[in-house]
Amino acid sequence: MMWLVILAAAAGTLALRLSFLVAGRHLKLPAWTTRITDLVFPVAIAALLGATLRGVATGGLGDFVALLAGMVVTGLIARRGRSILLAMGAGLATVFVTGLIAVAFAAGTP
Amino acid sequence: MTTTLISPPVPETPAWRAGAQAMVPLMLAVTPQGLTLGLALGQMPTGRLAAWATSSLIYSGSAQLALVSAYVGGAGLTAIVVALVINARLLFYSAAMAPLWRDRPLGWRVLAGYLLIDPSYVLAQEKRREPAYYLGGAVVLWIWWQLVTGAGVLMPSVVPDLKVLSAAAPLCFVALLTGAVKDRRSLTAAGTAAVGGAALATLPGSAGLAVAMIAGVAAGSVIRTGKKVSS
Fold this sequence. Notes:
The complex is a heterodimer.
Chain A: H1 2-23, H2 31-57, H3 61-79, H4 84-108
Chain B: H1 15-42, H2 48-57, H3 61-72, H4 76-86, H5 89-101, H6 106-114, H7 118-126, H8 131-154, H9 168-180, H10 184-199, H11 207-221
């Protein structure tokens, strides 16, 4: 039964992926959908980011602040047109350092 | 007598290799998700092979986890529906790429479509006229996804502490969003989706993600002007 469920979901997913690529000449999206295709990617990424942040926020303030600091650094570097790898590397370093500071601060707090 | 020095032509990096190289940061970003997903799948009472098979058959992290979790919860049909709702965005990716790949052979389009997922879609959008660039990155990502989820499923003891590495995914999202948000319309859409994603994160079966995405698209589509976001 499990395999049946997996195969059905796999077939449905493949159909979603291939629909317009294979049958594009016969399928026509309504006009309004063509106006929103450029929004799909930023919206999907933003929704995932929001859900991830919610998860981190429930984990502890120190982790949340460290991640926020890393996100600011990553965003600023990426905004300046640098590579994603460089932006992420700087962001990860910021998360690491800010996390250490948060731990030290928490340890010093009575 | 004068001699003219002609420097030898610098060989250009093949497009597929350039695509594979461009995929590296995105691979880093999906690694924590792949490992943790593999760990979670490996603990499901469905059998490790079935759980890992979702990596190649469905090839979409959030949908894989939702499918297996819903099935273990006793809802076979719901599991399929949830997976398809989460993957509904792939329909739009397919529609967006169809005009660009229309003239490629059928086999190529089937392979390219099978490999279509968020990071590979980023690459496809980056160089829309270079199919080899897309395939180079997409194939490398697929192989990497099988390896990292497989490591989590089959060898949970080798999975490292993910505390710092787990920040890679949200940081990658930020870097990608920075490039994707180009005007007030996309900023409104992304902002709405982010707030919705955070607010609705606790809804069952990742339904919050779907609702947040729909809200984001709706909010963005009511903005008509394409005023640029200043850098």
